[in-house]
Amino acid sequence: MSCLLLGVIRRHGGVRASVGVRSLASIPSLPPAVADFVRRAADECKPARVHVVTGTPQETANILAGLEIEGMVKKLPKYENCWLARTDPKDVARVESKTVIVTKSQRDTVPIPAGGAKSQLGSWMSESDWQAARQERFPGCMAGRTMYVIPFSMGPVGSPLTKYGVQVTDSAYVVASMGTMTRMGTPVLNKLSEGAEFVRCQHSVGRPLPLKAPLVNSWPCNPEKVLISHLPDTRQIMSFGSGYGGNSLLGKKCFALRIASRIAKDEGWLAEHMLILGITNPQGVKRYVAAAFPSACGKTNLAMMKPALPGWKVECVGDDIAWMKFDSQGKLRAINPENGFFGVAPGTSNKTNPYAMATIAKNTVFTNVGETSDGGVWWEGLDPPPAGVTLTDWHGKTWQKGSSTQCAHPNSRFCAPAAQCPIIDPQWESAEGVPIDAIIFGGRRPEGVPLVYESFNWQHGVFIGASMRSEATAAAEHQGKVIMHDPFAMRPFFGYNFGDYLAHWLSMQTRKAPTHLPKIFHVNWFRKNPANGGFLWPGFDENARALEWIFKRCGREREEEAAKRSIIGWLPEDGAIDTK
């Protein structure tokens, strides 16, 4: 491409469209390093035009209006500024089998099992194989489309814990969603103009124009060619063929976990698949907790819990990802690098998570949920719609109770601004982060694992995290109820060799005085009664009873306080869990 195409904006049918040609030099606000990245991406992908995203509300409104005209989203008149998207049925979840880490040495990325078995702790691709795969996919992949340039911040702009990224994409759906999930636009460009480093993120749906085959649900994707690749040595992400959020919103799992975990190793901090919440007891004492559960195992419900115990209060800092670093006083502090919630819809209701329901009542994009005839949304777990209101499933077909299929896809999602959460923590955007008193690991274990227990020490806690197992969920392409190893709830998200990751966690106890290390616990809300298959623990707001014990253990004066020693760790002593 002899010159870089950049958006010249004009009105067209009420929607702002990017047309025309300008040279890169005519946009002085684009920092040189960003301009170079954009130029190289445009030369490779050959878009018809390039639009630099500013992140203004008007721009977002224009993007959504354009998506509506294209048939990719539908406005939901029952709510304020809410939208429904239906994807191609082949593009509904993270694709772990097509997600790779590219390094010179295989051992840098994954342990190498004996006998040539495939590692379950990541997928490595050689540099030569990746270059070949890239050449099969990216050249000309954006022909006829707009390349959007998204400058974004993972964490509050200016925080010492924050990292920056620039994503180029040919998906306007991604632009709208990144505007919710990250701090995006001109303020980030200003920071990059000061010389801040950034992760280079390149994404394409892989359907250049003109189309050679019709789209399903007006949703562009290329399932046969999906590849989500990470190059940690060069801080680069390249994703092709999928529009689903976990594969296309590159600030999420790709950057915030896979690339960030490698950055964290190099810089001496932790990037983890964890919620962050603040919990306050009736006496007004507050502690912060980080908790690691696999996807679709209740992180959002716990982060937004309305405690069943009188006088207790939970406030949400984040529901999915935590970046944690020791401060100068030796206290582990955490930020939520995201700006929104990308939560699983089915099972979310006013009974299980009333604060989540309040959060998603406006300014939300719903994907692959059911639709009601009165302009709303529906999914399994919600009350039946009122009489006379009919349902359309995530395929766009009429649906009735008793149908052989589900109305909403099991991994259907909502994408909503975190600031709308009624219990968002006052310190959720604190530049220095919140102080972490406890780290909790947990997963879906139908048998054999108790409700809650505490590690003996940091090393034992690392062992507990490393030995986590959980029932597979709909958040990835795995099927069935197989119990999978999921160490630290990071199995799909490790950015480097798990052995080095373990060593990095163990090294934390040598970085600061042991008295400043958070205490480590394990919980299991999902144990079942073998007689009838029902859950033994009610879960949801009742989980506050386990958090109360954890809270007390964090402030204990004696090791045996409210606990009894067992071979697996400290268990609550009889009566220590308030079940009244």
From TrEMBL:
GO molecular function: GTP binding; manganese ion binding; phosphoenolpyruvate carboxykinase (GTP) activity
Superkingdom per UniProt: Eukaryota
Xref: InterPro entries: PEP_carboxykin_GTP_CS (IPR018091), PEP_carboxykinase_C (IPR013035), PEP_carboxykinase_GTP (IPR008209), PEP_carboxykinase_GTP_C (IPR035077), PEP_carboxykinase_GTP_N (IPR035078), PEP_carboxykinase_N (IPR008210)
Organism whose genome encodes this protein: Gasterosteus aculeatus aculeatus
Protein name, entry field: phosphoenolpyruvate carboxykinase (GTP)
Boundaries of every Phosphoenolpyruvate carboxykinase C-terminal P-loop domain copy: 269-579
Cofactor section: Mn(2+)
Pfam families: PEPCK_GTP (PF00821), PEPCK_N (PF17297)
Pathway: Carbohydrate biosynthesis; gluconeogenesis
PROSITE patterns according to UniProt: PEPCK_GTP (PS00505)
GO terms for biological process, alphabetical: cellular response to dexamethasone stimulus; cellular response to glucose stimulus; cellular response to insulin stimulus; gluconeogenesis; glycerol biosynthetic process from pyruvate; hepatocyte differentiation; oxaloacetate metabolic process; propionate catabolic process
GO CC terms in record: cytosol
Assembly notes: Monomer.
Residue ranges of domain Phosphoenolpyruvate carboxykinase GTP-utilising N-terminal in the record: 36-265
UniProt family annotation: Belongs to the phosphoenolpyruvate carboxykinase [GTP] family.
NCBIfam families (UniProt xref): PRK04210.1 (NF003253)
Enzyme class: lyase
HAMAP family associated with the record: PEPCK_GTP
Keywords: Decarboxylase, GTP-binding, Lyase, Manganese, Metal-binding, Nucleotide-binding
Enzyme Commission number(s) from the entry: 4.1.1.32
